[in-house]
Specification:
The complex is a heterodimer of chains A (185) and B (263). Chain A contains nine helices and no strands. By secondary structure, chain A is an all-alpha fold. With 263 residues, chain B is mainly α. Chain B is elongated. The chains are: A mainly alpha (185), B mainly alpha (263). Chains A and B meet through helix 3, helix 4, helix 6, helix 7 and helix 9 of A and helix 1, helix 3, helix 4 and helix 9 of B.
């Protein structure tokens, strides 16, 4: 299983005082936190929504929410861990708020949002997988991204999503089956 | 374990999430069942692909410009802002800077520094302005072109003195932009602010809670004004008016911090 995104992070922001300065209202420090973390947040939003434009909006929402919530960050975890959880909550909250909009069809011909200069060349498989993930039904996509890409446990996803653990497992099974079918075509 | 019982557990088995006893039982079944073994292999191949996906993807454009103008939502409410219906956390996504916002933010910051804050009132009352280059405690905002006239007792917290190279009113072209020309002065401001904040942090424990709270609220307002001005300058980097506003707002922050340090 993929290791959770945040495990590889060096807690430099906490060590060099950037988080503390941002907590005190230093916008320049907060901008540094943004620069250090935006790519990870955007990747999460992009995969959870399957929509590049929406992912940009949600990424901005995540950082605005982070600014508002920063005074409550107690430093018990790495800042990126806290931010990642916040990002998941923002995306899931927007989905609940938008209701029917989650059925929006992703343009599978447009995968430019997944391309980034720092991304290592691949034989095409990962882009096929990105495309297939984007085509999943929203519930299955969310569970697959959180569980199999980001490394959350079923219990955590169930809590975040307000689902029963059994429902979460069923969604994951469905997602994996659909992905395998899509990749075998 | 029956085939049906094993099938129900194959996802957890492939993910390594089964308790030891169940894992052993499913493994035993998988070893003997071609269908289940193929299923597990397929799931694990998918997980292997998922593990290669990049954890970070750069957005196709810089999103900060759409974030900075919204950060004022964290600032303490002022009467001048409360009437602005756009000041709503996570409001409809407003990607473009709107002129009235910065004007109100900066006005709020300057009004704040000019005498509305409890801190200013207290300091002015308790520490009248002193001649001879001591800390300027009156609420007049010093512009960068005037230079920082006052110095605190601590040489580490002197105000910036770098001249601002704003473009001439109708003169030659700034090279490359007024905002770029302002950056050295801005760095001086930021350095002075950082120094003052370090001194202030050391003294924070001696400060009355309500005073500290008021101070933080006021600084947030000023920071929001700075963010607004900078975002506006990103879009209009040759605006003399915006440069003046930004430098005045930095002056305001230096002044508030100086005053706070002197408490």
């Amino acid at each position: 299983m993929a290791t959770m995104l945040v495990e590889n992070e060096a807690p430099t922001a906490a060590v060099d005082g950037t988080v503390q300065r941002a907590q005190q209202g230093d916008v320049a420090a907060f901008e540094k936190l943004y620069r250090d973390n935006v790519d990870r947040v955007f990747a999460l939003c992009l995969r959870m929504t399957g929509d590049g434009g929406r992912a940009e909006e949600l990424t901005q929402d995540v950082f605005v929410r982070a600014w508002e919530k920063l005074p409550t960050f107690e430093g018990k975890s790495a800042f990126s861990t806290w931010l990642h959880r916040l990002a998941v909550n923002v995306v899931l909250g927007s989905r609940r708020a938008e209701g029917i909009r989650i059925g929006k069809v992703f343009s599978t011909d447009d995968l430019t949002a997944y391309e980034t200069p720092g991304r290592t060349p691949d034989p095409g498989h990962s882009m096929d997988l990105e495309r297939a993930i984007a085509q999943l039904p929203p519930g299955a996509r969310t569970v697959f991204v959180l569980h199999d890409v980001e490394g959350y446990k079923h219990e955590e996803i169930a809590e975040l999503h307000g689902l029963a653990v059994g429902t979460c497992k069923a969604q994951l099974h469905r997602a994996r089956r659909l992905l395998r079918e899509a990749l075998e075509r | 374990m029956t085939h049906e019982q094993a099938v129900e557990r194959l996802d957890d088995f492939a993910s390594g999430e089964l308790p030891d006893i169940e894992r052993v039982l499913v493994q035993r079944h998988v070893d003997a069942c071609d269908d289940c073994r193929a299923e597990v292999d397929a799931i694990q191949a998918l997980l292997g692909q998922a593990a290669t996906l990049p954890r970070a993807i750069a957005p196709p454009r810089d999103l900060w410009a759409g974030i900075a103008p919204r950060l004022e939502a964290r600032a303490a409410p002022l009467a001048v802002m409360e009437d602005d219906p756009r000041v709503i956390p996570l409001a409809p996504r407003r990607r473009h800077w709107q002129p009235p916002r910065w004007a109100m933010q900066i006005a709020a910051a300057l009004v704040l520094v000019a005498g509305s804050s409890a801190i200013t009132a207290r300091i002015v009352r308790e520490h009248p302005a002193q001649p001879g280059g001591q800390v300027a405690l009156n609420p007049v905002v010093v512009t960068p072109r005037q230079g920082a006239q006052g110095r605190t007792a601590d040489p580490a917290v002197q105000a910036p003195t770098a001249p601002v190279q704003a473009p001439a009113a109708g003169g030659g072209k700034a090279a490359p932009t007024a905002f770029a020309a302002f950056r050295p002065a801005e760095r001086d401001y930021q350095s002075a602010i950082a120094d003052l904040q370090r001194v202030l942090d050391a003294k924070r424990g001696q400060m009355a809670p309500e005073t500290a709270e008021t101070l933080e609220r006021n600084l947030r307002i000023i920071d929001s004004a700075i963010a607004e001005s900078r975002a506006a300058l990103e879009k209009d980097p040759n605006s003399r008016e915006l440069i003046d506003m930004l430098s005045a707002t930095y002056d305001a922050k230096v002044k508030v911090l100086r005053q706070a340090v002197e408490i």
